[in-house]
């Protein structure tokens, strides 16, 4: 049986549309705002939701997401709270895929099998663990596969073709291509070089390829989407939500930020695979 990720990317491919994948940190700008923001993003055109699990040492993240993670942890947004938020989201949205993005330690503490069961029961479709290398992912992948939870893989400009083969062999759901060798929130440097590498990766990868890091607005989203199956926008959205007065204000900011990106992506023709 197809999970929500497979169904969503299949529908997008059939319609020639690009995936819009917003990232927000669970518990920021407030605990109360998280679920309303997720619904607002779906209403504004999100195809897949990436929900950041706050972590004390988010080494792949730039200052915007680092600060949001610190704020969320101070409010009590640990992994258990994040899963509860997904369950609340699922009360009124049974279709939009939700992927947790975070770090290995909170998952490892629970154990791969126990975590996978808990995540799927909450309504999670996939997990992206930034600090889990493919050479050490077998036990997690097997435990996740048993529960129907996708272990999403990462690739970057420094990933060799030989290593990409190993990444693809273990990837599930989609491949997250990091557009730059840096942290979240950094600007894309040589856009033509990123595009060329994306074309290369996407031409060989059997899974949908989405690109993230450096996607800040409609223009950068459209430029990168021309060479990928979708785009992830994170730091710019998290920054737009920071300081929201309440949950309603946060939801309004989320929708206002995402809507122009949806319009821009809908103007991009899907390249043939």
Structure characterization notes:
The chain contains twelve helices and eight strands. With 273 residues, it is an alpha/beta fold. The chain has a single domain (21-263), classed as Aldolase class I (TIM Barrel). Strands 1-2-3-4-5-6-7-8 form an eight-stranded parallel beta barrel, surrounded by nine helices. The longest helix is centred in the last third of the chain and has 19 residues, at 247-265. The chain starts with a helix and ends in an 8-residue tail after the last helix. 48% of the residues are buried.
The radius of gyration over CA amounts to 17 Å
- Low-pLDDT runs of 5+ residues are 182-188
N/C terminus separation: 24 Å
Sheet with the most strands, sense and barrel status: 8 strands, parallel, barrel
How many distinct helices? 12
**Tally of strands:** 8
What level of helicity do the residues show? 40-55%
What integer is the average pLDDT? 91
The string of secondary-structure elements, in order, is: HEHEHHEHHEHEHEHEHEHH
Class in CATH? Alpha Beta
How would you sum up the global shape? globular
What would you give as the CATH superfamily? Aldolase class I
């Amino acid at each position: 049986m197809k999970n929500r990720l497979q169904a969503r990317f299949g529908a997008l491919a059939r319609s020639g549309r690009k995936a819009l994948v917003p990232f927000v940190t669970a518990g920021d700008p407030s605990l109360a705002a998280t679920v309303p923001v997720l619904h607002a993003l779906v209403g504004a055109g999100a195809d897949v939701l990436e929900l950041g699990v706050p972590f004390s040492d988010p080494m792949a993240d730039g200052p915007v997401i680092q600060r949001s993670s610190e704020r969320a942890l101070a409010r009590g947004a640990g992994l258990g709270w994040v899963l509860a938020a997904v369950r609340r989201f699922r009360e009124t949205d049974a279709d939009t895929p939700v992927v947790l993005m975070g770090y290995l330690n909170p998952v490892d503490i629970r154990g791969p099998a126990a975590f996978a069961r808990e995540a799927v029961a909450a309504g999670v479709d996939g997990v992206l663990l930034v600090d889990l290398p493919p050479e050490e992912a077998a036990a997690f992948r097997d435990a996740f596969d048993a529960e129907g939870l996708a272990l999403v893989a990462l690739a970057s400009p420094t990933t060799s073709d030989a290593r990409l083969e190993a990444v693809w062999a273990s990837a599930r759901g989609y491949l997250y291509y990091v557009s730059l060798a840096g942290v979240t929130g950094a600007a894309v440097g040589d856009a033509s070089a990123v595009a060329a590498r994306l074309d290369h990766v996407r031409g060989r990868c059997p899974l949908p390829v989405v690109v993230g890091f450096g996607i800040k607005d409609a223009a950068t989203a459209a430029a990168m989407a021309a060479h990928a199956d979708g785009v992830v926008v994170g730091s710019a959205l998290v920054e737009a939500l920071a300081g929201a007065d309440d949950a309603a204000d946060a939801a309004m900011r989320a929708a206002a930020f995402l809507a122009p990106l949806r319009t821009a992506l809908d103007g991009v023709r899907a390249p043939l695979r």
